[in-house]
Amino acid sequence: xxxxxxxxxDATKDxxxxxxxISLAHxxxxxxxxxxxxxxxxxxxxxxxxxxxxxATLVLDAVLTESQISEMIDTIKEMDSMGKDITNE
Length: 89
Hints:
Layout: H1 2-17, H2 19-31, H3 37-63, H4 66-88
Helix pairs in contact: 1-3, 2-3
């Protein structure tokens, strides 16, 4: 349990310190004075989405095995297919 918590903490730290995350944050900081409110809001949203997605990916890699991830993806595909079948009927 503690090992899992540490793995999640490390994955989160790695996402924040990732080169692409830092580059995005730097670009937003440097360009904030030249952006309108909508553009700045969109940039913050895109940074947040990037960071969330990368964190989720790294956490999954830290806590699930490759076969568990594959099984989860298959389940998601199956649920998506069932949802499409239901909406088409």
